[in-house]
Design goal:
four-stranded antiparallel β-sheet; Cupin_2 (chains A, B); five-stranded antiparallel β-sheet; homodimer; metal-binding (chains A, B); metal ion binding (chains A, B); mainly beta; 12 strands; GPI/OXD (chains A, B)
Chain lengths: ~150, ~150
Amino acid sequence: MPKVELDRLTPSNRTGYPPPFHQPVAGRWQRAVGQAAGLTALGAREVTLDPGAWSSQRHWHEGEDELLVMLAGEAVLIEDEGETPVRAGDIVAWAAGVRNGHHLVNRGDAPCRFLCVSAGSDAGGGYSDIDMMFTPAGDYVKDGTPYAKSRAAP
Amino acid sequence: MPKVELDRLTPSNRTGYPPPFHQPVAGRWQRAVGQAAGLTALGAREVTLDPGAWSSQRHWHEGEDELLVMLAGEAVLIEDEGETPVRAGDIVAWAAGVRNGHHLVNRGDAPCRFLCVSAGSDAGGGYSDIDMMFTPAGDYVKDGTPYAKSRAAP
């Protein structure tokens, strides 16, 4: 039966971000929906952001499309142009290769919860606000120096 | 700004199903979310099913993962094993190549609304309840005879 039993999936706040970039995502709890369902081409995670938590460092993907739908609560989407509220029912999508970093920040007093899906090729990407870039092989300072800790998928 | 402005997208009940298989999806209204957002690797449609409408003929994809999240209302998921209610907030996923046909039927008195996403390769697939199969080139009777009307993507 393909209905995803969310209650059986353990949320994880694991991140591969090297310090200190891991700190803002400590309150991001992810459940690996796509993996649980045996999906291979479509990535899918259910994400809860505690108050104050970020969805990620502000980033873009060179080869992957991303889309999220807010299921409950509210967060603020931050991009180059500024801020946009994202409320329950809102759908937000980012096409591969558009170098306008995005992330969501929960500035409210209650958790918010969304489903995030992605597809495409793992061709790395960039971060808008920090001196880091990512490739399939790991995280690098923008001058090309590898970070000591290799990136682990959440 | 990547927030999808659903109100600006025109719902379509177009289908490429040849008669009489088009009839049960006449009350299926789709908005092309992924296309509007410029996505190329990730398919995304917001779908409203009027009372009585089906999401599709009961089918599977050989090369594409599919996932939906019910946003409002309720429908019944039908597969080989039987029926499962799908309610607002439920997530349902189908891995590519699993030959267990699925579709949703709205048996209620009110519309239901879901987001459906997909990714993978267009390798065709099959239908569980009707004498039809689909390939990237169109629809065929299971004996290999092409249907007169070629399949058009909704």
